[in-house]
Amino acid sequence: MLDTALSVRETIQDKALVRSFSYINGKWCASATGDSFGVSDPASGDKLGDVTAMSAEESLAAVDAAQAAFPDWSGMLPQKRAAILRRWFELQIEHKEDLARIMVLEQGKPISEARGEIEYGAAFVEFYAEESKRPNIEGVTSHLPDAEVELWREPVGVAALITPWNFPSAMLTRKAAAALAAGCTVVAHPSGETPFSALALAELAERAGVPAGVFNVVTGSAPTVVEPWTRDPRVRALSFTGSTEIGKLLYRQSADTVKRLVMELGGHAPVIVFKGADLDVAVAETIKAKFATSGQDCLGANRIFVERPIYKEFCDRFTEATRRLTVGAGMEDPDIGPLMNEKAIAKQEEHVADALTKGAKLACGGKRHPLGPLFFEPTVLVDVPADALILSEETFGPVAPILPFDTEDEVIARANDSEFGLVAYVHSHDPRRIYRLSRALQFGMVAVNRTKVTGAPIPFGGTKQSGLGREGARQGMEEFTEIKYVCRDWA
Ligand code: NAP
Predict the structure, then answer these.
(1) Alpha helix (H) residue ranges in 183-243
(2) pLDDT band at 9 (very low <50, low <70, confident <90, very high)
(3) Which segments within 274-331 are labelled E, that is strand?
(4) Measured CA angle at 339 (ends 217, 470), to 5 deg
(5) pLDDT tier for residue 335 given thresholds of 50, 70 and 90
(6) Cβ–ligand 1 contact at 267 (below 6 Å)
(7) Which DSSP state fits 210?
(8) What ranges do the domains of the chain cover?
(9) How far is the CA of 259 from the centre of ligand 1 (A)?
(10) In terms of CATH, what superfamily is 6-265+466-486?
(11) Among this protein's residues, is 298 annotated catalytic?
């Protein structure tokens, strides 16, 4: 297979960041089968290039490499590992513009959001470069009169990382930096929709001095590449971000080898707006919570509950703000770009049609956008009935359903009535109410009077079927470690 992807190279400065081969054991490898898959620009539909599709056997070669590299990497002085991670962070920042452009071409998001994602993703590498020096900071007081006891945090071994297309850079750095800082070696599979961002990160990892075999990126069909990793006892941890459906599949596949699992799965975020909240803030923040990443965000608002006395005013203002949103190709930096694929567009259509059939009213949008087959109009549905699909399934697109509520108890029950529990947004100025809601909402994260809450120092993650474990913060690194207890008798 030829190393292609020429049209991506045309738009960036550092041409070597665009890679079409997998990165295994410090080498750029094409599959011996000659298989490849095409990647296209969701805005134009143009093909960007072909990327090699590794076989199951070749995917296991990445585990061989990661296993072989593990003793040296885990045994390296943490300060040295930290310096390599720090350099990887610096290179990501130095190449921010190129990385953002690669992302826009393959993912479609607005360029300013892509730049923000590079900074956000790099921040995890910076954070874990620091954190890698201090995993063993907890002592223990002995319960035995004549023995000394110690706890050590040790890296679990090879970690498999499986990342989605909606944040093709940050979802990889958030996992990889934590695993590498802990002393694990990594095999990663990026989504076939957006492999170029992950391959560019591998190129920068090599330049930063990450040794061969420590960080491997394997492209190809997800079941072909990932399934062998789930069965392989050498892979000790598996960290997945994606849909709850695939998360459950990987959970089952990993059972026989009892892997440590981190699962960042779907969300179905409620937004709850109470009378007395600052409506300007509530509308502006809910627009962000709904339409960032063109609605393709696990933190995306999927149910907007508004207290009845302010319901009409909120709906009017929210609809007006939605009408003002611009739609276009990511490079033009609109508010909303194209969706990822036809499946995503079909889901918007299904949710809109279902809600309207059941009695919701269309306030704006509601159909495909004339700009192209993967564009959808920013849409507002009001008076959405409780049995509408959109109130129980993740929409993952720019459709906002709004509905009224009457009491605090009622809205808490309705917000919690979901198999998901990733994030909930609350708008209120009553401190006691904020406290009660923060306690009662069954979500991993609660955001009050704001939308942006994530970042490297906080443990990101959900409850119920939104996932297992946390990413970011110290807790995110601990997911890739085991505790070893040593009890020494001095007698
Ligand atoms: P997806 O279909 O579950 O895919 C996620 C990843 O899994 C991709 O790399 C995909 O590869 C891979 N995959 C697909 N089938 C697989 C299989 N049989 N075995 C192993 N891997 C497989 O999800 P998506 O549509 O890409 O992303 C959207 C979902 O991710 C939403 O539900 C969203 O809420 C969730 N998400 C959650 C978070 C979070 O932090 N909680 C963050 C972002 C997204 P291919 O793409 O190559 O098929």
Answers:
(1) 195-208, 222-231
(2) confident
(3) 301-307
(4) 50
(5) very high
(6) yes
(7) P
(8) 6-265+466-486, 269-457
(9) 19
(10) Aldehyde Dehydrogenase; Chain A, domain 1 (3.40.605.10)
(11) yes
Q: Where are the beta strands (DSSP E) in 165-324?
A: 185-190, 215-217, 235-241, 260-264, 269-273, 301-307
pLDDT of 11 reads 83
For the chain, the average pLDDT equals: 96
CATH number of 269-457: 3.40.309.10
CA proximity to 382, closest of 412, 352, 417? 352
252 lines ligand 1 (CB under 6 A): no
Distance, CA of 258 to CA of 237 (rounded, Å) = 9
State residue 491's pLDDT score.
62
| pLDDT 10s digits, 245-301 | 999 999 999 999 999 999 999 999 999 999 999 999 999 999 999 999 999 999 999
Q: What is the distance between the alpha carbons of residues 392 and 298, in angstroms, rounded to a whole number?
A: 14
Cβ count near 313 (within 10 Å): 12
CA of 252 to the centre of ligand 1 (A): 16
223 in ligand 1 pocket by Cβ < 6 Å?
A: yes
Question: How far is residue 45's CA from residue 125's CA, in Å, rounded to a whole number?
Answer: 33
Q: How far is CA 143 from CA 52, 80, 140, 149, 369, in A?
A: 57, 35, 9, 8, 68
Q: Which pTM value belongs to this model?
A: 0.96
